[in-house]
Amino acid sequence: MDIDTRLLRYFTTVCEEGQLTAAAGRLFVSQPTLTKQIRRLESELGVTLLRRSREGVTPTAAGHALATHAAQMLESWEDALRATRQAADTAGGTLRVGFSGSTINLVGLPTIAEFGRRMPGWQVRMRQNNWVDPTSGLASGETDLVLWHGPASLAREFATAVLGTEERWVALSVEHPLTARESVDLADLLDEPFVAIPQESGAWRDYWLGVEERGGRPVTIGAVAHNADEWLAAIACGQGLGFTPESMRRLAQRPDVAFRPVRGLSPSQVGLYWLRDRPATPAMDAFIRSCRETIAVGANR
């Protein structure tokens, strides 16, 4: 029987935390998504792994046995990955970098050329996140690094190389009355419908809806988009507004979408991220240095 290692990682984290909410926060996924994945694992194994109560969750006898062996297996798998990457570092290879939306536009030929100078014989493979996997392939091992705009709190969940900060703006249809203003207040947007990313994206969905700054005001969802193109199209069609990095206005221009600065909305942090339990390889370090040499973010542009 083949089991996705991501399911095992989710399960062991729940056992360590004893609560689905805490485990979801640590894994940077939504609680419904985590619950769904645990049930998927139980279904594949044909056993009940967790006993749920008001106080939290505890493993059943079967769950306890799996947790013990899964932790050892995941540790062995990480050792295998490290050995594989170290061997590849001496012979050339491919560095896999994930990204979301317009962040890919930050990386161009100067970055790749600088990386090639630092790591001769190596290539960079860029992988776009589909907004359903909140780790952009880090948890599954499909990526080595990810380039994100996000909250500063990401540094608590992931190892981080910060590149800079950038203001969050609002994107809206050019037909929207607020385009008559040079900037808008967050308070003016609270009752507007928003184009959201999927619930499976976990904390990312709340961040790009500005939930923390809304002071408890609920969000009206006008549409749900699964990638940047869908998101822009929904905004252009007047289905809702959306918060976005300021750089989106020059990196993803459309004649039917306008961008305005927002007063009262915290900026996003731009950086490269990787799993804390996976030490950076020489290739990862080289790419981080290359980005710092060639990418200008926010006020440093």
Overview features:
301 residues; alpha/beta; Arc Repressor Mutant, subunit A; D-Maltodextrin-Binding Protein, domain 2; five-stranded mixed sheet; four-stranded mixed sheet; globular; WH_DNA-bd_sf; LysR family transcriptional regulator; LysR_HTH_N
End-to-end distance: 51 Å
Helix content: 25-40%
**Main CATH class of the largest domain:** Alpha Beta
The count of helical stretches stands at 10
Q: Could you tell me the radius of gyration in angstroms?
A: 21 Å
Give the gist of this structure.
The chain has ten helices and 13 strands. The model has no long low-confidence stretch (mean pLDDT 87). With 301 residues, the chain is of the alpha/beta class.
Secondary structure layout plus pairing:
Elements: H1 5-17, H2 20-27, H3 31-45, E1 50-53, E2 56-59, H4 61-89, E3 94-99, H5 109-118, E4 123-128, E5 145-150, H6 154-157, E6 159-166, E7 168-173, E8 184-185, E9 193-196, H7 203-208, E10 220-224, H8 228-236, E11 242-245, H9 248-251, E12 257-263, E13 268-274, H10 282-294
Parallel strand pairs: 3-4, 3-5, 8-12, 9-10
Antiparallel strand pairs: 1-2, 5-13, 6-13, 7-11, 7-12
